[in-house]
Specification:
This protein is of the alpha/beta class and about 500 residues long. The chain folds into three domains: about 130 residues, Response regulator (Rossmann fold, 3-Layer(aba) Sandwich); about 250 residues, Rossmann fold (3-Layer(aba) Sandwich); about 110 residues. It contains 18 helices and 16 strands. It has an eight-stranded mixed beta sheet with strand order 8-9-7-10-6-11-12-13, sandwiched between helices. The chain has a five-stranded parallel beta sheet with strand order 2-1-3-4-5, with helices on both faces. A three-stranded antiparallel beta sheet has the order 14-15-16, with helices on one face. β12, α13 and β13 form a beta-alpha-beta unit. α6 crosses α15 and α16 runs antiparallel to α18. The longest helix has about 55 residues. It is elongated, with a radius of gyration of 39 Å.
């Protein structure tokens, strides 16, 4: 199996020599050659398949040692080798975190042995971590949300996305990178004592302990890294610091959501550049559409993010708005990935009172869930929903069937009452005419009443029972209708009508 290796050197001759040696080895595959450490950190943030990094110390040994330390802190699972003269102190390299030294001038055997040994160390470490279920083996994804302009709802959308991703089983960290006016702490009903500025102030010492001390837990289940309380604290937050912080958060969370606000500076440019997915949020108005186009152009011009690698999110959508998803696609030449409805009844009160995380907004939450699927964050959502539907479907069918049977039973009872009323009227008429025969007990007189009751059923073969009271001059007809629901009492399925009659002169 080949080993992916990246070389950092400002000497083009050394890079060429390394490429020549690697070309002669079947075990070494050059992932990239880079001129400085900043380019290397960006590469490691974008790719997770780099096994070994070789750092050249040909001119500035101190800078090379510092870079080795920084790689070890930000990417502890990547094996680092120094490329240096034979007299370079090995103890110093090992103390910084290097796995060995490739001596200059570079030879095939020496380079192959050192690279193979470093790759074996990395493979063994990964195997141990996988057996113990350590989350360091799974690098989380970073999603950056940026606004086309102010007021398009980026912060609200970021909080709802964190809630929805947590509900769907993700380990989520929400980062407030709106450094001048961040309010995610207020929206989440928490008061962070420390902020991203505190982590940035740790320079190269960002680690698990620093992360734990700065993050604050939101009751619904995700963590929050707040924005600075004072605007002057934002001045010390550099692009390199943001990259390091996000890379460290990747190791502890499966999803890191970054609220970048609507302004662009070095720190937020670093977040947008290093994120796995970037969403540009705009609202349904022409000013927002124009701002989105300028933002995409500036990202491409500054080599921050290509327009084709940005997901467009149309927020606060309403059918009466002039800007519809089709128009956005035509103007920006890029399809809208998600449409989030304007639902003031779900959000306005909660946003104003800072209680956005107290309950799930159904319409907005469903739209954000679809966005997470489109981003590839919760690919299991479809399977989960289908499994839930499979469980709920039998109960839904059973409930519908029971409701249908109850309705049919009610119709049958009503029909039975109509039939009984019609029959008793006919029987009363016949009893009035044949009163004398009934009084004399003539054979077949009562049977004639019963036959009259059966004929009054309009051809329906329903079970009828006749009650005749000669002295009280009363008749009653009971009609039994079919029982569709066996749990109902038997008498519920009977309809009864009673009427008196007046004897007539025969």
């Amino acid at each position: 199996m080949s080993v992916n290796i990246a070389l950092v050197s400002s000497d083009s001759a050394l890079r060429d020599a390394f490429l020549t040696v690697a070309a002669e080895s079947a075990e070494i595959e050059i992932a990239d050659t880079l001129a400085n450490g900043e380019e290397l950190l960006r590469l490691l943030g974008e790719r997770g398949d780099i096994d070994v990094v070789a750092v050249a110390a040909e001119y500035d040994a101190l800078a090379a040692i510092d870079l080795v330390r920084e790689i070890g802190r930000a990417y502890p699972l990547v094996a680092v080798l120094l490329v240096a003269e034979p007299d370079f102190p090995l103890a110093r390299a090992i103390e910084a975190g290097a796995r060995g030294i490739i001596n200059m001038p570079i030879s095939l055997q020496d380079a192959q042995d050192k690279v193979t040994s470093a790759a074996a160390w990395r493979a063994g470490l990964l195997a141990v971590l996988r057996r113990t279920g350590d989350p360091l083996t799974d690098r989380g994804k970073v999603v950056a949300l940026a606004g086309a302009k102010g007021g398009v709802g980026v912060s609200t959308l970021a909080v709802v996305m964190a809630m929805e991703a947590t509900r769907l089983g993700q380990r989520v960290c929400l980062v407030d990178l709106d450094l001048l006016s961040g309010d995610l702490g207020y929206l989440c009903s928490v008061n962070p004592r420390r902020s991203v500025a505190d982590l940035a102030g740790l320079v190269g010492d960002v680690g698990p302990r620093g992360i734990r001390e700065v993050l604050v837990d939101v009751p619904v289940g995700f963590a929050l890294l707040g924005a600075p309380e004072r605007v002057e604290q934002a001045e010390g937050i550099s692009e390199a610091a943001i990259r390091t912080i996000l890379n460290e958060l990747r190791l502890h969370f499966s999803l890191v959501i970054v609220d970048c606000g609507c302004y662009l500076d070095d720190a937020r440019a670093g977040a947008i550049d290093s994120a796995d997915k970037v969403c540009l949020v705009l609202s349904g108005d022409l000013i927002s559409l124009r701002s989105a186009r300028r933002g995409l152009d500036s990202w491409e011009r500054l080599d921050i993010r290509s327009a084709g690698d940005v997901q467009l999110v149309l927020n606060l959508d309403h059918r009466k708005r002039e800007v519809r998803p089709e128009l956005v696609g035509r103007v920006l030449k890029h399809e809208v990935s998600a449409v989030v409805p304007n639902a003031p009844d779900e959000l306005v009160g909660e946003v104003n009172t800072g209680t956005l995380t107290t309950k799930r907004p159904p319409a907005v939450g469903d739209a954000v869930g679809r966005l997470l699927v489109a981003l590839g964050i919760v690919a299991k959502r479809a399977r989960s929903d289908s499994g839930q539907s499979a469980v709920e479907l039998p109960f839904a069918v059973l409930g519908t069937l029971v409701a249908f049977l109850v309705c049919v039973q009610a119709v049958l009872l009503g029909f039975g009452h109509i039939m009984a009323a019609n029959a008793v009227n006919e029987v009363s008429r016949v009893a009035s005419v044949n009163y004398q025969s009934l009084s004399d007990g003539r054979t077949g007189a009562v049977e004639e009443l019963e036959e009259t009751a059966r004929q009054a059923m309009w051809g329906f073969n329903l079970d009828t029972a006749l009650e005749y009271d000669h002295e009280g001059r009363q008749v009653a007809v009971t009609v039994k209708v079919p029982a569709l629901i066996s749990v109902l009492p038997e008498e519920i399925t009977s309809a009864r009508a009673q009427a008196g009659f007046v004897p007539r002169e025969g």
